Amino acid sequence: MKLFENKAHRILEKIEAPLLFSSRESYLHLPTIKEMGVAMITLADEFERTVLGCSIQEEDRQGLSTRLLQFRGLFAAFDSLTIDEKKKAITTAQALLIEIRDILPDAATLTPCEGTIPANATDNLDESFHKLSLPLQYVKGVGPKTAALLSKKLLNNIEDALYFLPRRYEDRRHIDAVKDLKVNVTGTVIGTVCKAEIHPYARRRVFEVVLDDGSGTITAKWFRGNFRFLRGTFGKGQRLILTGDVQGVHGHWEMIHPDFEIIDSDEDDFLHFMRIVPIYSETEGLRQKNIRRIMKRIVTDYASALASPIPEEIAKRRDLLDIHTAINEVHFPSTDQNIELYNEGRSLAHRRVIYDELFFFQLGLAAKRAGSNLEPGIIFREGSRLLSEFYRCLPFTPTAAQLRVTNEIHASMARGAPMHRLLQGDVGSGKTIVAMAAMIRACENGYQAVLMAPTEILAAQQISRISEWCNHLGLKAAM
Fold it and tell me: 29 near 21, Cβ under 8 Å?
């Protein structure tokens, strides 16, 4: 209990320290403090993971979530605010911290997990299976229409969705002021739409949206796409977030075909900015923001139902995250993570998911092999003349290595059990000759044989060579 309270309160102290420092001596030091907004949001994320990751009363959870949401909102564009606006934000933030402290003792009624495994992770495999098998329509906000759209992405149940990983990530931790943008550098700005119009451009049209964030304006341009959709999407006075490469000259900034999201008046969280934002594969009729909201709810409510076969001691030895933390992080990375590792699929969260996938793959192969060994196979008995005739028609004498592996394969074929064998050799080492020898043994026993090639070109080359041998041996070859 004390461990939890100390940890949570230590984070609150980290949050409170810069707020106190910046407000001392009538905010004397405030102008010298840089990147305060990002630091505050990072610490708020850490606090939320510490407290809300444990089993607490729903009323306390909602109270803390609401205040943390308000706290993040104060610092969303903090570094671009005026000094007076910063003073007001700091005063409000300090008041919120007092409210959070008042809630915290009541919230900490259960001993939270130490380490990384969430306290609400279930040990009941039947319960886990039931939760993971639930159709997506059981998720709040997913109706029949949305479920049908998700099914186009082969997402039908909770488990499908948990392993529907983002295809890339965008760094929206830093909200830029328009006046501070730099050419040929990706920027993220939040502002109000003051104009949205279609204009002629050379022999075609361009849809332009002018965004004002208080420090300046930037124009977003679309040269292609559904202009009717764009005109219906953007309206004057709308709050909008744009992310894209900045072009133009100072004071006349542009973004060409930027990523955009509408900031709704009822925005319920900061899923879409001031963090590393996951970008999912889309389907027509389902916007990125909606997918993200659905995934956030699924990850929050159901990630704890996942079970991994990897023993804990192996996970520790391999420095693997627990599967629940990995799924949470791979969908919604913490603010302090390295986005390059995430976009390259090399983050610790990706590493754990990949490890499990390879483990299941190996397990499947082992189970398949074990099952195959229980099945009866064909006993291919030694033939009479065809193999010897084949060797005589070759323009060269088979090497010792070719004869050795051919004998090993024939021995396996004679056992009466399915054979699993990998033959490795350089180009021109005679693998096709060995394969032909195996097929001849099958034909001598009254069976057919199939040689598979990875490309049509290679298949054509193989049939040309094998047909000559088959004609000499009285066998029929076809592609």
Answer: yes
Contacts of 226 (CB under 8 A, 6+ apart): none
**Residue 451 tokens, joined:** 């040689």
385 burial via Cβ count (<10 Å: 0-12, 13-18, 19+) = exposed
Q: 388: closest CA among 427, 328, 440, 445? A: 440
User: Is residue 358 within 8 Å of residue 318, measured between CB atoms?
Assistant: no
Helix axes 348-374, 323-331, angle to 10 degrees: 120
pLDDT of residue 161: 94
Which residues of the chain, if any, have pLDDT below 50?
1-4, 107-121, 266-269
Q: Quote the pTM value.
A: 0.56
CA gap 411, 192 in Å, rounded: 77
